[in-house]
Amino acid sequence: MRRISILGATGSVGQSTIDLIARAPDEYEVVALTGGRNIAQLAKDARRLNAQLAVTAHDDCLADLRVALQGSGIEVAAGAVALCEAAARPADWVMSAIVGAAGLPPGLAALDQGATLALANKETLVTAGPLVMARAAASGARILPVDSEHSAAFQCLTGEDPAQVERLILTASGGAFRDWPLAQLASATPAQAATHPTWDMGQRITIDSASMFNKALEVIEAKEFFGIAPDRIEVLIHPESLVHALVGHTDGALIAHLGAPDMRHAIGYALHWPTRRELPVARLDLAEIGGLSFQRPDPERFPALGLARQVMARGGLAGAVFNAAKEQALDGFIAGAMKFTEMADAVAASLERAEAEPGLIDAEFTLDNIVMADGLARTWAADYIGNLNKR
Ligand code: NDP
Predict the structure, then answer these.
(1) Pocket test for ligand 1, best of 13, 15, 17, 56 (most atoms within 8 A of CB)
(2) Ligand 1 centroid to 391 CA: how many Å?
(3) Across all residues in the chain, what is the average pLDDT?
(4) Where in the chain is the domain with CATH 1.10.1740.10?
(5) Closest protein CA for atom 43 of ligand 1
(6) pLDDT digits (tens, 9 = 90+) for 327-344
(7) Å from CA of 35 to ligand 1 middle
(8) Atom number in ligand 1 closest to CA 100
(9) Residue 211 alpha carbon to ligand 1 centre in Å
(10) How many C-beta atoms lie closer than 10 Å to residue 318's C-beta?
(11) CATH class of residue range 2-145
(12) Do residues 337 and 385 make contact, with C-beta atoms less than 8 angstroms apart?
């Protein structure tokens, strides 16, 4: 039996992971499931999968979790430290599917125990790429990408000589506002931004898809994971979301990965790697689909992509600042405190303030320094939002 833990089990990726595991209950022993505020779902899955441990991120949810799991024999716990302890419980495979920078410390704990880390939480590599890679190397843990574009690229690269890779192309649907007139973007509401044309995902990543902050994070994640130079990573808008990534080789060959827009594809690949297994995903009928289209993203419409280039060129803790400011700006947009188009301005302003802070971006890559940069960036972005509201 393979011992499995799922961090962020109640979310979109977590639920897709559970869907796959629940289809073969005899193959898996579920060690730990973690969630946030959706206690009913966490308790239901913990019982169904007979987990050893269920953890909520929030201390004020512990009593509810305890009641929901009464009589089950399943251990319960709450809080940030308990999340890391859950990730550190001996397991063979750990899914990292918490949303945001909160996923970093438990991800590191899973790596430290040597478990294979199936990485959906892109913020882990964006905020702490070199630290994460060093911790994986120290324990011998393997990281398998779960972001669909990175899983696709990983599959295209299997068996290839990295020295002969010329470029990596990540595709993007273009999100909810791909075809909106530019002038209308400032009036976009959170509900409109949270509607994705092709993927069914959590609210935050869906809004990040509309602003392309999601793709910006993915470009940085790809640089960290594959070690490809930033100028060799391209983004193409591909409205059909069927080609997830392409890898160009020195002989001119471009190898593409196609599949239905269903996260169980990438999750299943990471779950069964290095083998392939039958997965409950739709098969593409290319004759029925008829055509695939691609366009270059408009930098004016999607300023987040330019900011990602700036972050990669700067290196150091710029990724942690970028991500934290983006999370704060997203909170501001969801709360109605700022316009859709102001999110990129808030992030740019936070990056500028970080530059003005002596030694901050070039500080050593430690968890403490990353947490410090993250905290400062949130404050700066919040200040920016506060000033907008004083106008
Ligand atoms: P969701 O918002 O659907 O789920 C997030 C999960 O994290 C939930 O279990 C939630 O708990 C939990 N959570 C929220 N806040 C915290 C916190 N502070 N501490 C601990 N746990 C917390 O997100 P997604 O599943 O959409 O995305 C998860 C990650 O995977 C993100 O990094 C995203 O970028 C990445 N990803 C997602 C894809 C997708 O298709 N959804 C595709 C590729 C990557 P609760 O809901 O109980 O409050």
Answers:
(1) 13
(2) 34
(3) 97
(4) 315-388
(5) 147
(6) 999 999 999 999 999 999
(7) 9
(8) 32
(9) 18
(10) 24
(11) alpha beta
(12) yes
Residues of each domain in the chain carrying CATH 3.40.50.720: 2-145
For 119-174, write each residue's pLDDT tens digit.
999 999 999 999 999 999 999 999 999 999 999 999 999 999 999 999 999 999 99
35 lines ligand 1 (CB under 6 A): yes
Ligand 1 atom closest to the Cα of residue 200 is 40
123: Cβ below 6 Å to ligand 1?
A: yes
pLDDT in tens, 223-262: 999 999 999 999 999 999 999 999 999 999 999 999 999 9
Select from 59, 147, 205 the residue to mutate for testing ligand 1; criterion: most ligand atoms less than 8 Å from CB: 205
Residue 182 has pLDDT above 90, yes or no: yes
Report CA torsion sign: 104, 189, 174, 281: positive
CA of 102 to the centre of ligand 1 (A): 10
For the purposes of burial, counting CB atoms within 10 Å of the CB of 37, is it exposed (0-12), middle (13-18) or buried (19 or more)?
middle
Give the residue-averaged pLDDT of 204-215. Answer: 96
Contact 294, 236 (CB under 8 A): yes
Query: Cβ(13) to ligand 1 under 6 A?
Result: yes
More confident: 202 or 37: 37
Helix 39-48, helix 12-22: angle, nearest 10: 20
343 close to 213: Cβ distance less than 8 angstroms? yes
**What pLDDT score was predicted for residue 236?**
98
The CA distance from 21 to 92, in Å, is 14
Residue 391 clears pLDDT 80, i.e. is over it: no
Whether the pLDDT of residue 36 is over 80: the answer is yes
Closest-lying ligand 1 atom to the alpha carbon of residue 199: 40
315-388: CATH topology is Rna Polymerase Sigma Factor; Chain: A (1.10.1740)
- 């992971």: which residue's tokens? 17
